[in-house]
Write a structure and sequence with these properties.
Layout: H1 3-44, H2 51-56, H3 72-75, H4 77-92, H5 95-123, E1 126-130, E2 133-138, E3 145-147, E4 153-157, H6 158-163, H7 166-181, H8 184-197, H9 202-206, H10 208-227, H11 231-248, H12 264-275, H13 282-305, E5 312-313, E6 317-323, E7 326-331, E8 340-342, E9 346-350, H14 351-360, E10 366-377, E11 380-389, E12 397-401, H15 409-416
Helix pairs in contact: 1-4, 1-5, 5-8, 7-10
């Protein structure tokens, strides 16, 4: 293979890959609207006062990312009517794929830049051991928060460490540790990935606030029970944090985890949640978490079972005519299986039946038979074998030899995509 041929292949491969994944992610975006609406409905009704169950609802959105290859889109009449237009758009206007990819890259860049800035901000902070825990101390009047997934860092403002009592600092540290233990940092990261890949759905970005509120509400409940403290004292500490930090800065930003948003109604909602605290059973909370994990895994496995594989064996046979640079005839109907069969060396054609079929369909030019190989999605992207049918033989069954292509690196790359 020459350098030019390799370059042509890689360009074609890249272009096909963009369309292939845009086709899938676009379907995921469309499905995410319905799932998001369901989560919001359950969150406001059935699960409104069930803190742990309400937080677990957000797990329903994760399996949506795996739904792009479901057979429902091709083999169901409802799926075909609702989603076939997106397939036509992606194939007819291929620039849509590059536009979608550009959106993913822009969103990913903005997310990376934001996380990079936070990481660089903490790199120069003073490290201090507080109540046996290493924290990063900042002079900026922000509420305490935690960042990082594999090596989480707890950031504490200096004013809190200097003006708060020991028990108050311990309570704040416990809150941040609960976030880490419950895996909230990982959940936030997965949510960011969801928003990046499904960026055409603005409801997901708008729902980030609700998602974080639910995680905070869970963390508040667990912190109060773990500390064996009083909800009233915990609420006072939250209000004190607001007062102290606001006094430090007129531009006080309530972005971080412990104190919530700047809007009064959000603080009021959180305080109301703390005021309505009731002790819970740890086994019940653990059961809800386990059920959420199992439900998510079950949904992912279920979607996988009703989806096409990355590489699907193609058993279809099609015939087309070609003359003067144009396709003069095309057919892939099931009747071909009665006239054509093949093994790993030859194609076998029932001469009388096949030539009568060609005559009835006014087939002109060279006649090609395409068969076998594999496909990525029905009607889209794959590899098959072909041979040319030549009339004139008197054999009842025409045997045409062909060479089966062994897997090379290009086919392997296409299969694992």
């Amino acid at each position: 293979m020459t350098v030019q041929e390799l370059g042509t292949f890689m360009l074609s491969f890249l272009h096909g890959s963009v369309i292939y994944y845009t086709l899938q992610l676009g379907r995921c975006v469309l499905l995410s609207y319905g799932v998001f609406a369901l989560v919001c409905l359950l969150r406001k009704t059935v699960c409104r006062d069930r803190v742990f169950l309400k937080g677990a609802l957000w797990c329903l959105l994760l399996p949506v990312l795996l739904a792009g290859r479901m057979k429902f889109f091709y083999e169901s009449e409802v799926g075909w009517k609702l989603f076939s237009w997106w397939t036509a758009v992606c194939i007819s206007w291929q620039w849509i794929g590059w536009l979608y990819l550009s959106g993913v890259l822009v969103c990913a860049f903005l997310l990376f830049r934001r996380r990079r800035r936070l990481k660089k901000l903490t790199a120069g902070m003073e490290k201090r051991k507080v109540e046996g825990t290493v924290v990063y101390v900042t002079d900026i009047p922000v509420t305490p928060f935690t960042l990082g997934i594999f090596r989480p860092r707890i950031i504490m403002p200096r004013v809190i460490l200097e003006e708060y009592g020991r028990e108050e600092v311990e309570m704040i540290l416990l809150h941040e540790k609960i976030h880490i233990r419950l895996g909230h940092l990982l959940f936030y990261f997965l949510w960011d990935i969801l928003c990046v890949l499904l960026w055409p759905n603005p409801l997901l970005s708008a729902g980030t606030k609700c998602f974080r509120e639910d995680m905070e509400e869970i963390c508040d409940r667990v912190t109060i029970q773990k500390s064996r403290g009083d909800a009233f004292v915990y609420g006072q500490l939250l209000l004190k944090s607001m007062k102290v930090l606001r006094a430090e800065s007129e531009d006080f930003n309530m972005y971080a985890a412990f104190a919530g948003d700047t809007e009064f109604r959000d603080i009021r909602r959180r305080i109301a949640g703390i005021a309505g605290y009731r002790p819970y059973r740890r086994k019940t909370a653990a059961g809800v978490l386990a059920a959420a994990v199992l439900c998510t895994a079950g949904m992912a496995a279920g979607i996988r079972n009703v989806s096409y594989d990355r590489c699907n064996e193609n058993e279809k046979v099609l015939v087309y005519g070609y003359a003067d640079g144009e396709v003069t005839f095309y057919d892939d109907s099931g009747i071909l299986y009665e006239m054509i069969s093949y093994d790993d060396r030859y194609v076998y054609v029932d001469r009388d039946a096949f030539e009568d079929f060609l005559f009835k369909n006014n087939a002109e030019g060279e006649i090609f038979i395409v068969f076998g190989g594999f496909y990525k999605l029905p009607g889209f992207w794959g590899y098959g074998y072909s041979c040319c049918y030549e009339a004139g033989t008197e054999d009842k069954v025409v045997r045409i030899s062909y060479e089966e292509q062994k897997d090379n690196w290009m086919l392997t790359l296409l299969k694992i995509l």
